[in-house]
Amino acid sequence: MPICVECGAPVTNLYTEYSKGNIHLTHCEKCKKFADKYIEHDFVIIFIDMLLHKPQVYRHLLFNRLEYRDYGVGPNVLKLGILLILFDVYIKWLRLEIYYENIPFIEQPLFLQYLYILFLCVLEFIVFQFGVRMAVSLYIRDKYAIFKYNYITMALIISSFGKIILILKVIWTYNDREYSWLINIVNIVVLTSNLEAITVFLDIGYFKSFAIIIFGLGLKILAQMFFIQVTDSSLLMTLLSI
Ligand SMILES: [Zn+2]
């Protein structure tokens, strides 16, 4: 059932269509506002509100926009997830270029280097997702008879859209210092967006969702440390520090 993006109350429908293109938005019985104003907004407005961390836009995306699924993630979310992993690969690759301009970081063919970084990014992605899901399962234990963990994954993927800002690196030329700042800003935007999405989806306070995200990040760092031990690579430290 869809919900009101303003107060979270369930509503029977979001709009009534009188004729093609002529719709009337439903008013929420609880808060008396439009149940979902984003029905009539285009993607640019939605994107700006995501950047502004508005809880309403995450309620719209997670509860009203996504097609209901018992398991797995929707094809569009999956595409975004793959794109975000490739962005991570790109960020790490650039980092290596900046720090090791004249030194090949691994004496291997280029495609093996790429696979190496790709493997690391996929590992980070999976461990983070697993960590957050584990923290959520500990938190909601006995609270719900059925809980759709696939929506946790979708919430994290959608709210990591901020990494796309790094496409600016392709369009404009930054110096190393500016680029480091850009990465730091993007990391903060992604972290706070993840926080907002989990807060909205679980309908909990920011402190609790912060603890859940930190648990996921902690597990990811542990996995990275394990990787360092296994590969014994000081160059890997550079990769992991971003
Ligand atoms: Zn409402």
UniProtKB/TrEMBL annotation:
The keyword Iron-sulfur does not apply. This is Protein ARV. Mediator of sterol homeostasis involved in sterol uptake, trafficking and distribution into membranes. Regulates also the sphingolipid metabolism. GO terms for cellular component: cortical endoplasmic reticulum; endoplasmic reticulum membrane; Golgi membrane. GO terms for biological process: intracellular sterol transport; regulation of plasma membrane sterol distribution; sphingolipid metabolic process; sterol metabolic process. InterPro entries: Arv1 (IPR007290). It is found in: Endoplasmic reticulum membrane; Golgi apparatus membrane. The chain crosses the membrane at residues 77-94, 114-140, 152-175, 181-202, 209-230. Belongs to the ARV1 family. Keywords: Endoplasmic reticulum, Golgi apparatus, Lipid metabolism, Lipid transport, Membrane, Sphingolipid metabolism, Transmembrane, Transmembrane helix, Transport.
